[in-house]
Amino acid sequence: MTSAPAPDTLRAPLVVEFPFTRSLGPVQSAFLTGLRERTVLGVRTEGGRVLVPPVEYDPETAAELRELVEIGATGTVTTWAWNPEPRPGQPLSTPFAWVLVRLDGADTALLHALDAPGPDAVRTGMRVRIRWAAERAGAITDIACFEPSESGEAVTDVREHDGAFDDPVTGIVAAARLDYTYSPGRAQTRYLRALADNRTVGERCPSCTKVYVPPRGACPTCGVATTEQVEVGPRGTVTTYCIVNIKARGLDIEVPYVYAHIALDGAGLALHGRIGGIPYDQVRMGLRVEPVWSEDGRYPDHYRPCGEPDADYDTYKELL
Amino acid sequence: MTPDREVAIVAFAQTDHLRTTDEFSEVEMVMPVLHEVLRQTGLKTSDIGFTCSGSSDYLAGRAFSFTMALDGVGAWPPISESHVEMDGAWALYEAWVKLLTGEADTALVYAYGKSSPGSVRDVLTRQLDPYYLAPLWPDSVALAALQAQALIDAGHTDEPALATIATRSREDASANPHAQLPGARPQGEYIVGPLRTGDCPPVGDGAAAVILAVGDKARELCDRPAWIRGMDHRIEPHALGVRDLTDSPSTRLAAERAGAFERPVDTAELHAPFSSQEVVLRRALDLDDRVRVNPSGGALAANPMMAAGLVRLGEAAARIHRGASDRALAHATSGPCLQQNLVAVLEGENRA
């Protein structure tokens, strides 16, 4: 037992990527399909306002909205913000202005980017027009950006539109990627460092004296910090198990195999691990096992029988 | 509304808010503030009737991340517990309702956020409309800057006035030992014009906790409880282009329903992460120079995501606890350009 000083905290890149597939519904489907066809649609409220981009329900009355109208591709900047350093995923990679644009015929504004040489070339009230993306797929990014359009009067001609297009877009994939630097904190850093040394350490709660493996820095029963490190194992007892019959994608372990709860000697609760070195149908509660370390020695790859007689049920029944 | 039961904030604690806290997991960061509010009241975990927390998986980059931090509460035997994927101010609202129903007499509310592992400007784009906004990745500073320009165009403020708000906030934070940016500092370069570094909140990690109690229980636990006289929260229309960004009708309505306009307040803790947002909130809440705004320094001095709103409620309550305020307004916001707004009115009982 030691009360070791906190080691240097571990850090590792953590990438979260998710391609959410979203269905659009009648109004958003018509709007985004329209963009693909270089047609801008809005939706008319009961009060006669035209909302662009359109929504299915009136933001004031919550009435269902379905009356589509076609409006122009030119408009007026209602507010703007100069973005000197574009970030990944934004519409332009050179400095640009974020703008809210009220398109001609619309009563509300659309957010997008304005391609302009500098902040001096942008002002509220300036006239702009849509620059269409060369490749369009039925997404807000079919508008590449806006560009200045000082010539030409506002065309406020609003035409009825049935919203019908050939091959309508009914869904989008909202792809996202976020980059993090993960730090597991002090308790888990100590655990991972010990594993790299082929040791398993838990931490004891000063209040209830239970030893948590892996430790997360707090006793979930008492709500106090666990700071006293306790080396547990290496041997342990299978408290319960299941037989996995379906192979997970990318897994190079032959099925069936056994996944078990293993109470390492000295631990106050069981952890998970695969059982190897024994036919799957001979694994049993009470089986005594020991870790087999991964090739790079950083974690137990699996546990195998260590040859000791089975543990008596009473010795592990509290750890099931 | 006049609730049948009186509910008060009786204890408040917050971490030092720091740019990075690599050495702590979320639970390691939260535990000290939980212990501190329990110590202040003498309560044990098992004495707490209801526990509610606020945090966000997108900051942690992990699903159900709040379950890890829950270990810091001591959740066995089973406790009555809830979580909001929002600022802890909304967790406090849920706890307040729970106490008003009579289901519990005490509540522990906590909130935390570690922004340091990710890029919070990008992370916050994921809370936007996924059809029309999120694919463009408009970051939180960009959206606030659109609002700031609208305010300037409308003649409600200008860049020197914004700089004054930033300077005043950080000078006030000099007296706040938990602040991340105490002391005035240069306005710096444009991040997204017209907002400069000084107009934007620091990115950082932190946590906060409060304890709520009802009636005589509150008087027992605290010398001068901060009674919640009213609390309400409202939301603006979803689409930014539908709104008048220079105004905040949702804040005004929430304040009205919370009773903020019945009598003047002496203190207002406003959750305005950007200097320009204080301009909007002051107008919506009719605050004049007689009201002490953000004596703590506000979110411009420390803005731990998901906790900064709860910190406003806690700071306002702590001012009442120590007799520096008799009637305080606390405000919390969530979402782009003050999309959602919560207002609470706190009062101390008359002193003999």
Strand order across the biggest sheet of chain A?
7-6-5-8-9
What's the overall geometry of chain A? Answer: elongated
* Mean pLDDT over the full residue set of chain B: 95
| Model regions low in confidence, pLDDT < 50 over at least 5 residues of chain A | 1-5
Helix content of chain B: 25-40%
Return the average pLDDT of chain A rounded to an integer: 93
Q: Which sheet architecture does the biggest sheet of chain A show?
A: 5 strands, antiparallel
Distance between the termini of chain A: 25 Å
Indicate the structural class of chain A: mainly beta
* Unreliable segments of 5+ consecutive residues of chain B: none
Structural classification of chain B: alpha/beta
Secondary structure elements and pairings:
The complex is a heterodimer of chains A (320) and B (352).
Chain A: E1 12-23, H1 25-36, E2 40-44, E3 50-51, E4 67-71, E5 74-83, E6 96-103, E7 110-114, E8 127-132, E9 143-148, E10 159-160, E11 171-182, H2 185-195, E12 200-204, E13 211-212, E14 228-232, E15 236-244, E16 257-264, E17 271-275, E18 288-293, E19 300-305, H3 313-316
Antiparallel strand pairs in A: 1-11, 2-3, 2-4, 4-10, 5-6, 5-8, 6-7, 8-9, 12-13, 12-14, 15-16, 15-18, 16-17, 18-19
Chain B: E1 7-14, H1 26-41, E2 50-54, H2 57-60, H3 66-70, E3 81-84, H4 88-100, E4 106-114, H5 120-123, H6 140-153, H7 159-172, E5 190-192, E6 195-196, E7 205-214, H8 215-221, E8 226-235, H9 249-258, E9 267-269, H10 275-285, E10 292-293, H11 308-321, E11 327-334, E12 340-347
Helix pairs in contact in B: 4-11, 6-10, 7-10
